[in-house]
Amino acid sequence: MEEIQARQAEFEEVLGFKSPEDIKDFRIETEKIGDLIVSEERLEEILEHRYAMKEKILRAEQIK
After folding, report:
1. Which of 2, 26, 28, 56 is most buried as measured by Cβ atoms within 10 A of its Cβ?
2. What are the tens digits of pLDDT across the range 18-33?
3. CA torsion, points 9, 11, 17, 19, in degrees to nearest 10?
């Protein structure tokens, strides 16, 4: 646990955080970015399914 806290402190120092508010703002932004990445991955899953269905429909129409 101490090692994690030491690495986190080093990371925050490298980024140049001046106050706890800076750290809090950074963490909030990081969470938002993480949420966007998850949302993008979920969107890809949804779209992949829709495109697969569309391809099946187009193939079925061509066979007719």
Report:
1. 26
2. 777 877 888 888 888 8
3. -20
The residue length of the chain stands at 64
Residue that the structure tokens 């932004």 belong to: 29
For residue 32, the tally of other CB atoms under 10 A from its CB is 10
Name the residue ranges covered by the structural domains of the chain.
Answer: 19-63
In the chain, % helix, strand, coil (3-state, to 5) comes to 90, 0, 10
Q: For residue 30, give the nearest of 46, 47, 17 by alpha carbon.
A: 17
Alpha carbon distance 34, 17 (integer Å): 20
